[in-house]
Amino acid sequence: MRNSVWQGKSRPFWRAGVCWLAGAEAWLVVLAVAASVASERFLLPALVVAGCFWPVRWLASGRPTMRTPLDIPIALLVLLLPVTLWATAWPEITVPQVYRLLTGIGVYYALVNWAATPGRLRLLLVGTVLSSLFLALAVPFVIRWVPAKFPFLPASLHESLTVRLADTIHPNVMAGQLVVLLPFPLALALFAWRATGWRTGLLLSATALSMMGLLVLTQSRGALLALVAVLILMAVLRWRYGLVLLPLVAVILLIGWLFVGPGRLLEALATEQSLGSFAGRLEIWSRSVAIIRDFPFTGVGMGGFGPMCDILAPLFLHEPGTIPHAHNLFLQVAVDLGIPGLLLWLAALLLIARTAWGVYCAGQAMGDGWWSGVGAGLVGSQAALATHGLFDAVTWGWCVRPHWYGDYGD
User: Fold this and answer.
1) What is the rounded distance in angstroms from the CA atom of residue 165 to the CA atom of residue 162?
2) Residue 372: other Cβ atoms inside 10 A
3) How far apart are CA 241 and CA 237, in angstroms?
4) Who contacts 203 (Cβ-Cβ below 8 Å, separation ≥6)?
5) pLDDT on residue 399
6) Which of 208, 256, 330, 388 could cross-link 186 (Cys pair, CB 3.0–4.6 Å)?
């Protein structure tokens, strides 16, 4: 009798504790992964923290996770990770990359399961916007600035920016993160101004404009092309006559092709200071294709492009050890995980895009500016990721994290 009374009193307390821990999952996992971004030695602890919440969710809600459209491609990608660990000749490079991908997946499921109510979803959207604003404010002090390449940017502008950290970030890396996050505040400012109020609308607009200005300062051509794609897409989604921009852009490109010449046009669009001319980028892409041809099913192991390129197909226009990745997101995934990994990654990308489009269409049908903005932001983020990925690969492994919104909306 005493034992049954003790069990009857302790069980609700025990269950309440588990439910409280499940409610704190998003904050704890995000903090752990943020620490792993700051220092590689926290990667394994962050992965352990994210993994421990799977049984916690099971005990709290009777299921390890909510079902999402990405479950199958993510599960198959995880099954490929032992293959990449087996295939790599550089485990000291591959293991941290595998941990990074797994922590990104951990953040995805932590946010999906935590945002179980509209209130929590709105809170995390606000957190995303504030994170974007914080990132924009931190950019001038953490980037390793390069001299101005664009004629309209005075050289003194970059010289006046003072770096405050010893461990700086390359402009192209920061530009990749900025351009993927930019569509969220931009879309909410365009679609949800009335729903959020003018004060929040001003904050969203200021955040978006600040991020666009900083993208110009990074001088990353891939990010700037992605920015143009995002702006055109937002205009098309927001205004009835936005479609007029599509033939206008086509005419501008045709004029540039005819009067400037295809060679000079491609040179202007694809040249980077770290890569030299467009020929340098083409050389890297050709080596990527050669590696994929030699390792089509397994890849060379995550992060193995640089050393494998130096051994298998040395570069002539770049010093050995100076090119760590393929400078193309799609080629990089195939180099790391083989063609099966690329197909799974593309499946996840297309599923996110389909779900994002569904959220946007549902918001438009209901006349709900908030949900229209969420859907448009997701669609814009996918467009930015794909466009930027044509010229760089710095978003690989990171890109799964912000796209949990679409699965919740589905």
Assistant:
1) 9
2) 26
3) 9
4) 129, 133
5) 44
6) 208
Closest by Cα among 410, 407, 314, 301 to 74: 407
Q: Which residues contact 401 (CB under 8 A, 6 or more apart)?
A: 104, 107, 108, 111
Q: Would you say 278 and 266 are in contact if contact means Cβ atoms under 8 Å apart? A: yes
**CA torsion angle 264 270 276 277 (round to 10):** -30
Where are the domains positioned within the chain? 1-64, 72-409
DSSP letter string, 361-384: HHHHHHT-HHHHHHHHHHHHHHHH
Q: Is 276 helix (H, G, I), strand (E, B) or coil?
A: strand
Instruction: Please state, in angstroms and rounded to a whole number, the distance separating the CA atoms of residues 219 and 272.
Output: 9
User: 122: which 2 tokens?
Assistant: 């709105």
Considering only residues 291 and 324, tell me which one the structure prediction assigns the higher pLDDT.
291
Q: What distance in Å separates the CA atoms of residue 344 and residue 73, rounded to the nearest whole number?
A: 5
- Cβ contacts of residue 60 below 8 Å, gap of 6+? 15, 18, 19, 21, 22
| Both tokens assigned to 49 | 């923290």
pTM: 0.86
From CA 356, how far away is CA 317, in angstroms rounded?
41
Q: Is 127 helix (H, G, I), strand (E, B) or coil?
A: helix
Report the C-alpha gap between 143 and 30 in whole angstroms. 23
Separation CA 337–CA 266 (nearest Å): 29
Look at 278 and 121; give whichever has higher pLDDT.
121
